[in-house]
Amino acid sequence: MTQLFVIMGGNMGRNKSELRFDGAETLDVFLLLPEADAGIEGVGVGGGEERGVPDRAGRAVAVPGARPAVRRLDSKSVAVVKAQAAPRRSRGRSPRQHKRVKYSTVEIRAQETSKGGVKYEAILAEPAVQTPPKRNTSPLRAPKSTVPLEEKLKAAEERRLSFEANKIAQLAAQMEKIEIIAKKREEEVSKRKEALDKKIGNAVEKREAHITSVKEKAKEQVEKQAEKAEILAKKSEEEASKKKEALEKKIESALEKREAHINSVKEKVKDHLKKGEETRQNLDKQADEMNQALQESLKKAAEQREDNIKKMLERLQERDRRAELVRQNKERLSSSFSDNQQETASSG
Question: Residue ranges of region Disordered (predicted)?
Fold first, then answer.
């Protein structure tokens, strides 16, 4: 009889289930169960290493520090279990039938028993019998021949001589081919050399003719350019003389204008200096007057300040005198009040 204990958690909780069997073997399963209608996939078995379970996006989530998903199932059978959680059922409906997922070694039955809870049943199959691999057999040795050693050596010598004769014949044939190819190459080289000499002679003749024609054309162009240069030189000399005369006239007129401008500027400077001297004298007078007025205002301000200080001192003295009178009155009143209290106390 197989028993399955499932501890269900809240939203996306990590739950631990134990499958207990009669054979004192324990099957430990770690499941990651989301809310009712989420799928469960990737529960691993065997190994002894950490196994992962998928999240909502289908990615594997590692369970750190957990034991193997299925341990000590048996020594030869290892299985991967996939289960689909039943969707949430509404009230008033009959529970859905369980779904069966069959594998070669493990069968899982899942059935929704209550809201948000799933019951699993695990059925283990018989372990598969594996035949041991066959051993590789070494090949048998060939039987020893009865042919004597001298005959073998003689046959080997004959084979060697025939091989050398064949090799010499092949080399002779190759040498004949090489000589034929060398003769053909020499003939082709001589033909190409003759054709090249002819081409070079024709090219030299054409080059000399071209050089002579180019020299004649260059001589004609040089003569034409010399004539043009003489004509341009005469024209440039005439233009230079005309420009020189015009420039001398401009320089003379500019010098006259410059002297006249200098004289007018000198007169303006003299007038400006005179006006500046007059303005300086006027400014000196105004400065003296302002200094006198400032001294008088300073004297008046000092006198007024002394008067204000005296008035403030008198006010302070008057305030101190009044404060002294008030203090004396308070003392009198306090003494009279204390006397009255003593009298009332004695009379009472």
Answer: 81-103, 267-288, 326-348
